[in-house]
Amino acid sequence: MSSSPGPEKTALITGASSGIGYELSRLLAQHGFNLVLVARSAERLAEIARELATAHSIKAEVVALDLSQPEAASQLFAEVKRRGVMVDVLVNNAGFGDLCRYADSDWENQRQMIQLNVVTLAQLTRVFLAEMIQRKSGKILNVGSTGSFAPVPNMAVYAASKAFVLSFSEALSAELQGTGVTVTALCPGVTKTNFFKRAKSEKMLLRRLNQMEARDVARIGYRAMVRGKPRVVSGWFNKIMIASMRLAPRGAVLWVSKRVMQP
User: Fold this and answer.
1) DSSP run (H or E) holding 64
2) pLDDT over 50 at 199, yes or no
3) Across residues 90-94, what is the average pLDDT?
4) Bigger pLDDT: 79 or 246?
5) What are the Cα distances from residue 182, in Å, to 142, 157, 169, 226?
6) Which residues are catalytic?
7) How far apart are CA 240 and CA 242, in angstroms?
8) What residue ranges do the domains of the chain occupy?
């Protein structure tokens, strides 16, 4: 699939109401993709849909849905089928984190995080992947994190969920060779989004380090997806950090990680 999709190509983006998801939606619209925008806020999604449809002469549809709920992926797939939309690009961007010691965490919040970051992502990939393979064409972009590469004390479940995203995406990328379908994991570091507010970590030390703009992260992810790369890390600082983690002893990585992930 080229960066210019041709007639009636559609991208579905979860977590499209802000941050990286919004910027990816904007990029896809610029390249001529029709959009299905998914997030919890119907009002915000409708505003974005109007903006992008007007600016880029594309169709933009809205599905307001809380993807952290167990039946959400099935409901979303059914709604897309009901509307007669064929999804050519799936962007699994929705996700959140929580800064706390696991023993002190709210279990329902942790459960929703696992549901959204892992289960919903895997289920949406599964249901849309089958159609893409049948058509011998399609692209999936799964948003991971630099936290995909090492355990993160004080955000234990979040980092574990993002490790799943990376491993899952790279394995699928290998499985799908020769099918015409590609899977890419985008692994951003600290990015200027609402993530830290949702994670209750606005004063966290790591937030002060080399924050990237969401539009720059989205551009890196989009280019990697178009090229069919299995994985991309956004930004030179993050690439150096990950290379250092691979060379350092595991205990040292945990020691540093614990300290930078403190408020």
Assistant:
1) strand 60-64
2) no
3) 98
4) 79
5) 11, 27, 9, 9
6) 158
7) 6
8) 10-260
